[in-house]
Amino acid sequence: MVIKDGRFGPYVTDGEVNASLRKGDEVESITDERAAELLAERRAKAPAKKKAPAKKPAAKKAPAKKPAAKKTTTTTVKKAAAKKPAAKKTGEPRTSAKKADE
To answer: Is 59 inside any structural domain?
Structure first.
């Protein structure tokens, strides 16, 4: 058993269970019997360990789908729109609006 100083004050631990010291207990004067008593109280107060949840049976797979009957329809193919040729670069900077002379 070890007495440690934690975030919320001193506590006793045995490696598995932690138990806080009470207001009347002092770190220097705690005995092995008192530490064992605090740990026993903590174990009794702790909630019961949860059992592993029961496993559900594996879900049944949906039956394989039959392939749909092929439809005999004619499809039309659209031609891609003709692209315009790229504009030639002139070397002059583009301006969004012409400046008016004042």
So the answer is: no
In a domain, 72, yes or no: no
State the 10-residue block means of pLDDT for the chain, 102 residues long: 92 93 90 93 82 69 69 67 74 65 54
pTM: predicted TM-score of the whole model, two decimal places: 0.45
For 38, the domain range is 2-45
Contacts of residue 2, Cβ cutoff 8 Å, sequence gap at least 6: 12, 13, 14
pLDDT given at position 6: 92
Residue 71 belongs to some domain of the structure: no
